[in-house]
Every structure is written in C-alpha cells, then in structure tokens.
Design a protein that fits this description.
The protein is mainly alpha-helical and about 425 residues long. It is built from 22 helices and no strands. The longest helix is centred in the last third of the chain and has 28 residues. The termini are far apart.
C-alpha cells in the first residue's frame, strides 16, 4: 500500500507538471496518468468506471456531452451571431461595456444553470463579438469563465460542488441564496473592476469598427427560424428539467441527454454537423482527470489530509472557517473542485455535527473556497476546461500559465474578501 501511495502521488504530480508546462497534449497526459494509476494498482477498472465516489463522474461527462450537442445544433440557427451583434450595438461598440454586459449575463445564468452549461452557451457569442470588433476573444472568454465560477457560487444548482455540499449538509436552495448571494454580488462588482485593470489594452475604442458594427442588422443573422424555435423550446424544457430535478428525480445529465436526443430528432441534421461540435478531447481529459484524482481518494491520500485538519480544529470555528476557505481555494484550484469537495464534505459534516450551529459556517467556507478557488488554474473547475477547449478549437489557444496569471489575481482578491464576510456575518457577536 505504501508503494502504491508514493507511486500514485508521483504520477499525479508528474501529470500535473506536464499539464502546467504543456510539454505534451493535456488529453494525452490525463489518459496516460489514468492508465498508470491502473497499472500500479492505485485503482482498477471496476473502481475507475463504476465507483460513484472514486471513479469517473459520468454525470459530469454526459451533462457536458448533452449540452455540447444542444449548443452545436443551436449554432446552426445563427442565434449566436444575432446575440453578438445585438450586444455590440447595445454597448455602442465599446469593448469594455460589452465585456461588462457579458460578465453580468454569464454570472446570472450561472446562478440558475450550472456554470459549464453557461460557458457552452455564452462562449460562441463572445467569439463572434470579438471578431466583429477586431479584438482577441481571450480576455472576454477569461472574464466570462471567472464570472461563471463566481456567479455559480450563489445557488445550490449553480456549481456542481454546491450540489454535493447541499446533499451532505441538508442545505436548501434558499439556504445558499441567503448565505452566499450577498457576498457574490459584491465579488461580481469587484471582478468588473479587476477586468478593467487586467485587460485594459483590449478596451481601445475603434470608431470605424464600431460604426460598422452599429450598421449591422441582427435579424439578418438568423439563418433558420424554424430550427431556432425548436431549439429554444427544447432548451426551455431542459432548463425546467434542471430546476425541477430534485422533484422529478432526473439527474441533470439525464435531462441534458434527453434534450439533446429530442432536439436531434427535431432538427433532422446530418450527424456529422451535430457531433462535429462535440469537444471530444475535453470529455476524455475529464475522464482521465477523474481517474487520477479518484485514485488518490481510493488510496486515502486526500482523506488523510482532511483528517489531520479535523484534529487540528478543536473549537476554533472562525480559524477553521478561514483555514477551510483558503485551503479549499488552493486545493480546488489544483485538483478540480468536484472530487475535492466530494472528499472533504463528509469531514465537514462530522465537524458540523459535533459543533452544532457554531460550526455551520464551515459549509459556507467550503462552498466559497471550492467554487471561487476554481478560478485559480486552468483545471480548477469544469467550466475552465470547457472554455479552453472551445478557445483552442477556434484558433485561440490559452496556455495553462496565461490562464493562471489572471486566475490567481481573481482568486486571491475574491477569496480574500470572503474572510471579513465570514467574520462579520457569523462570528462578530
């Protein structure tokens, strides 16, 4: 067992170094690392493919697949071109105003959809807006993925880790809104200010390009009105399915796949047009990443770290909340926040059960740290991986370090602001 633990940690660290340095394609590194985990016995095929706790999270994989298919079909209607022209005209062709609009829209959508779905919907709009303005889409895409991770923190259904926390802590949708939405509004305003500084070179105004944008007619961008109506109806049904999933018992992944299948039947498009927009490399990267992290969970590595933290807490729940906030942000930025929260949630549950109401803020510290920490690196959250895949597919590769350069700033500032929030809200008596 000792050999397996050492070998598994070595494989994970090496894989992360390769992903960070981009010496090899990330999908190759993830799948190669997953294969090595099986070879050294850190996991096995049954655990990797069928374990709910330490294997591939098929809910995430199939949710992504279903939404990629839906967005691929929707792209055929010209809706994204319509939205791009509409947004650019409403902002007078000024890049910063457009970014603010897209950031606010992304954050709001992420609060009621999951942030991955939001990025799948909003990224194509950003690519087209940037093209019309003659700007690089990278700053817009980065701002939006930061907004999606921040906005998704506000609700139970906004970010996958929140679903895990809500289930473990018996926390309702309203619990999340009341406890997290106030600080998220503040953080969103702060993000807009950070974007103004970080991407200031992007906001140069070009009067000629703006004039050409203002002369465009957005309605002319719609290529297939009948398919647009069908797509919007299906997307509406999918959103209803997401919101009511706790009542119907249908997992979001099942809802997404049902919606994708229904729209595929209604659209009657050639399969290559539908499946050609699926980010297969992204899905395979997720699968490999889940297996590698799941192997560490399976061997008890992450659990050992959590137990050590548990023994150090004592009755100092303010200190524990701050430590959990910072630690969750750091580790979630490194190992992806979904498996991290899945591992830590049982430990927090025990702490809250022992400490009673005084320990309840630990849930909000975990949610804030894990969700906001997802902005730290390119692999910190599912939305990051999806956005980078979309950017690469459209000829705008975003390196690991390019993402981290901006993501680290956003994470440090937003997580730092959560410290006084937790203190003032729960411990200043």
């Amino acid at each position: 067992m000792t050999f397996q633990i050492v070998a598994a940690v070595a494989v994970f660290v090496a894989a992360y170094v390769f992903i960070a340095t981009e010496k090899l394609p990330r999908v190759l590194v993830a799948l190669g690392g997953a294969a090595l985990m099986i070879v050294i016995g850190a996991t096995d095929d049954a655990t990797a493919f069928f374990s709910e706790d330490t294997g591939i999270d098929w809910n995430v994989i199939f949710l992504l697949l279903g939404m990629m298919i839906i967005v691929g079909i929707l792209r055929q209607t010209g809706l994204f071109e319509f939205l791009a022209i509409w947004a650019a005209k409403r902002a007078g062709g000024r890049p910063f105003r457009i970014m603010v609009m897209l950031v606010v829209i992304t954050a709001l959508l992420s609060a009621f959809l999951d942030n991955v779905t939001t990025i799948l919907l909003i990224a194509p709009v950003s690519l087209l807006v940037a093209q019309r303005l003659g700007k690089s889409p990278v700053p817009f895409l980065l701002a939006e993925v930061f907004a999606s991770n921040i906005g998704g923190t506000a609700t139970l259904i906004g970010d996958p880790p929140n679903l895990i926390i809500g289930s473990r802590g018996s926390l309702s949708f309203n619990d999340f809104v009341v406890n997290l939405a106030p600080v998220i509004v503040v953080l969103l305003v702060v993000l807009v200010g950070l974007c103004r500084v970080m991407f200031r070179s992007t906001f140069a105004f070009d009067a000629d390009r703006a004039a050409r944008v203002m002369a465009l007619h957005e309605r002319e961008a719609i290529r297939d009105r009948r398919l647009l109506v069908k797509s919007l109806v299906v997307i509406g049904l999918v959103l209803v399915g997401f919101v009511t999933s706790t009542l119907t018992g249908l997992a979001p992944a099942v809802v997404a796949l049902l919606g994708a299948g229904l729209l595929f039947l209604l659209a009657r498009l050639e399969p290559r047009k539908v499946f050609g927009d699926v980010e297969w490399e992204t899905l395979l990267f997720f699968a490999g990443l889940f297996i590698m992290v799941g192997s560490l969970v399976h061997l008890g590595v992450i659990d050992a770290v959590g137990q050590a933290a548990k023994s150090a807490v004592g009755d100092d729940y303010l200190g524990a909340s701050i430590a959990l906030l910072g630690g969750s942000a750091l580790f979630s930025g490194i190992v992806d926040n979904i498996p991290f929260v899945a591992t830590l949630a049982p430990l927090v549950h025990d702490l809250v059960a022992d400490g009673g109401p005084a320990a309840r803020p630990l849930w909000w510290a975990l949610a804030l740290g894990a969700d906001l920490g997802g902005n730290l690196t390119a692999v910190g959250a599912s939305a990051n991986v999806v956005m980078i895949g979309i950017a690469k597919r459209n000829g705008h590769a975003i390196s690991f370090w390019q993402f981290t350069k901006y993501g680290a700033i956003v994470t440090v500032v937003t997580v730092g602001l959560c410290v006084p929030y937790l203190w003032l809200r729960y411990f200043l008596v």
